[in-house]
Design goal:
The protein is mainly α and 229 residues long. It is built from eleven helices and no strands.
């Protein structure tokens, strides 16, 4: 391993530590109260070192949220050869596993509590989180439309329908009832039904796609049982 590759790996590892520390600080303190000193302390770095990576709290917050977005959109940006239905199911679980994480739910609650006094916080969160995620979903759905797999008049509405159908209710409950975490079975109930409704509404081959979804759900359930055992 060369000295350059070691430096690159160290840089990547340090940036990962910073983003993990930032999420912890933002989720515990809220956006307005969080500061670079607290992030540097949590990451066990000096403040000058932190500023070598991120020039401001705003830049750090954006990078943190973009990292979470990239995780959720990975399957859409790098589709598998298993087909659209498999991509939609994988995205649904990646989305659920991300937005239902306790730290991200805490961050969302704190931002909701701050937007009345600091509307710029809500705009920052919306722009680098939900809005960018929505654009990524739209790009994927439009690609499937061009391939003849989906039919819709408005890509934004179709994308909003997708994430609204799969997880809106359990995420809302988790936001306002922090003592209740939905089980995997409860999440699956919403995801699977949401995808069924989405495919019935937008698929150009609904019967074929619904049959494929049923097969994939069965395989996913079997893998989950084996994992739990």
């Amino acid at each position: 391993m060369t000295a350059l590759s070691r430096r690159q790996q160290n840089k990547i590892e340090r940036e990962r530590r910073i983003l993990e520390a930032a999420l912890k600080v933002f989720s515990e303190m809220g956006y307005s109260s969080a500061n670079m000193d607290a992030v540097a302390l949590e990451a066990n770095l000096s403040k000058p070192t932190l500023y070598q990576y991120f020039q401001s709290k705003e830049a750090l917050f954006s990078a943190m949220m973009l990292g979470e977005r990239d995780q959720m959109l990975a399957v859409f940006e790098h589709p598998s050869d298993r087909g659209m239905v498999a991509d939609l199911l994988e995205f649904s679980w990646d989305y659920a596993d991300t937005v239902l994480r306790p730290d991200l739910l805490s961050l969302a609650r704190l931002i909701i509590g701050e937007v009345q006094r600091f509307p710029e916080i809500g705009r920052a969160y919306q722009e680098v989180g939900p809005d960018r995620l929505l654009r990524g979903i739209m790009d994927y759905l439009q690609g499937q439309q061009r391939a003849g797999r989906l039919a819709f008049d408005d890509a934004e509405l179709a994308a909003q329908d997708l994430w609204g159908l799969i997880l809106s209710a359990p995420r809302t409950q988790a936001l306002y009832m922090p003592d209740h975490s939905p089980s995997r079975a409860e999440i699956a109930r919403y995801l699977n039904n949401g995808l069924k409704v989405f495919l019935k509404a937008y698929s150009t081959q609904p019967e074929t796609d619904l049959a494929e979804l049923a097969r994939l759900i069965g395989a996913h359930s079997l893998n989950q049982v084996q994992h739990d055992a």
